[in-house]
Amino acid sequence: MEYGQNISVKQADLYYGDFHALKNINIEIPAKKITAFIGPSGCGKSTLLKCFNRMNDLVEGCKITGEFKIGEVDIYKTNDVNALRKNVGMVFQKPNPFPMSVYDNIAYGPRTFGIKKRAQLDEIVERSLKQAAMWDELKDRLNKSALGLSGGQQQRLCIARALSISPKIILMDEPTSALDPISTGKIEELCGELKEQATIVIVTHNMQQATRISDKTGFFLLGDLVEFGDTDQIFTNPKNEKTENYITGRFG
Amino acid sequence: MNSSKIKEQGGKAIFAGTAGICILAVIAIFVFIILQSIPALSKIGFTDFLFGTKWNPDANDIYANDLVGKYGILNMIVGTVFSTIGALAVGGTLGYFTAVYLAFFCKGKLKKIINTMVNLLAGIPSVIYGFFAIKAVMKLFNWMSPTGNATGLFMTSLILGIMILPTVTSLTKTSLEAVPKSYYEGALALGATHEHAVFKTMVPAAKSGIKAALILGIGRALGETMAVVMVAGNSPQIPDGLFESFRTLTANIVLEMSYAGEVQMGALFSTGAVLLVFVAVINILMGFVKTGGQKTKSKKSLPLWDKITSKINFGKIGKIACFVSAVFAGIFLVSLVVYILIMGLPHITGQLLFGEFEYGGEISILPSIVATLMTILLSIVIAIPLGIATAIFLNEYTKKGSRFISIIRSAVDILSGVPSIVYGLFGAITFVVLLGGSYSILAGSLTISIMLLPTVIRSTEESLKSVPDSFREGSLALGAGKLRTIFKVVLPSAMPGIIAAVILSIGRVVSESAPFMFTMGASIKPMPDGYMSSGTTLAVALYKLSSENLHTNEAYATACILIVIVLALNLLAEWVGKKLEKKLNGETNGIRTKHKRKAS
Predict the structure, then answer these.
(1) Were both Cys, which of B322, B436, B580, B588 would link to B97 (CB 3.0–4.6 Å)?
(2) pTM of the predicted model, to two decimals?
(3) Which residues in chain A are closer than 8 Å to B591, comparing Cβ atoms?
(4) H/E element holding A200?
């Protein structure tokens, strides 16, 4: 069975203990497009995102039902979470480079999957940094600690790190919320380039960001997926009143 | 299913297994010591043992005969209680005020210096405290004693008090600093002075933490052995004056173990069992303080303490008390170090350091240095991996409210509260017996390894906790398994903390003496020729040299070497600890610059 680039969720429910955090979610996320999840804090958008690479497994008392398919693979039926996460990369809200050199940060993923040859690693590091548009900035600083980079650079490094294992899908959990406008712009630009090769699902609080970069948008409220459709349609002609209220700012 | 899954499960099982060793150790210590006491207790009689006021072991001391000797330890129990109260009066008060001073009245460089000094006080070996007390401090007080000799309750309380000061201070300080700043601001906004806000608002808010600090101080004072043996006088009587000789439970064991007859040996193990009961009581008290901290109206607790503090709240007296306490601690440390350096440095000779040891002739401490190094090496090799694995299990595999985890935690707490002399007893009936019945460096190393576990576990756990979760998430999200995440990301980030744990453990091995005397040997000997030969560590050698009173110069020199090593290790640990903070805050560049090559 192959991991594909589209995500298909059917009748998914998620509970944190007694709290019903996701209610009967059905969504089809297309391949090689950017899909944005929007909605007020606590609406479940990040929770759903973390279902796609099973990061919710780390949360105690989290219970998930329903079907989550990535390509042909039913991800909650597979035993190999590591292979899932190799195919579905993630970028976090706060940049989280490891306290290692730039090079080691990017080589971490490939090394995890058994690549040890120096030449091969060099090639991957260079490719990943180029894809993240950072090669020119960092090629002379590969041996420096990643923690010495600026916040924006750290986040793009984390994207490069995610790219190092050539994921088919990249999940981004509010990747620019801790960054300045210039760094944000760079990352948005990067997303546009990355969708040539990978599906991107991005959670954002920033409406403008969603309109700028995404092809599809899903609006979440209190654990429900209220509306999902083409970004243009969601923002110009929402079908659901709640979506309209949120977008026009009368809500949240 | 696949091999990586098996590896993950296997790793977890190994971590859980090592954590189980702590539980096993606690059970073994209690069971073995109590089993060893039962025959003697049944012969002596439980009440005669606990409430008898005569301790007079007889030479004709075998289980087959009728008892001629008397084995009542009430005097020693009273002695232990008295000296503990004395220590609490001195160390509790000084430690409390020093902590308040550090937390609220002191800033910048001075704060750093006093902090370091308090930490150094904690690192100084018990034998050195005792040695300094008999050689120097006592001379200041001899005039006060009717016998012209200041050994006894007063001296013991003073020395013990200073020994528990670091424990009380650091824990009190931690809980004071955990009180929200907003309380302080609230008090000031109502027009309170700085002193009033500190003593009336901040201190009461930290009450349960301060109580815990005092209880831990009590535990430390109860279990202290070597310094007490050197200054208490040791006659098994209830002291009826401050300068009267007395004996504690711990001293009883050290003094008589080496020549004990059958029943006497059993009685000494029973003494150890009584100490374990004290430890258990302390742990239960701690449990109450920890869990009941929030809901108890702390008005009724420690009424005397409240009275004392409420008296000095007004004006600047409290502030002055704080300052005086901190300065006193500093002066004590400096005078101890300076005195021993001055007295010892001139006597460090080539013969002492590198010479041949001859019975009855020249003294050389080279064999002791070698024995110390051998012990350090082996105990680190044993305790560090076990401790790290346990800490990993506790921190990385914890499920909230897991029963197993909370049992392990209490086991670690108990292990850290067991007096070192009881470890010595335990080693004597387990490792020494297993290894053929004679003292050996191996038996001593195994004994101290168990003792090191709680320190290593706690210190490693602290540094694991300080590694942000985002590192773990980042690694897992890249498809790395839990083991890889732990070994490649978490442990390297926590490395400075772990190195600090190693250094502190080395310091502990160098400082301890009680656990070695009945496992490794207590007489100074020529060079050991392997782990199966007996030997003395430097600290034990110092105890022997000073108690024989024949080689005073050599004793000073040994003390001098010991203190230099210990101070260096402690300062090193502190420096390494700071590295951890820097590393995780990303202030250092190029931490792991293994790749020296330029980008192609």
Answers:
(1) B322
(2) 0.84
(3) 99-101, 145, 147
(4) strand A199-203
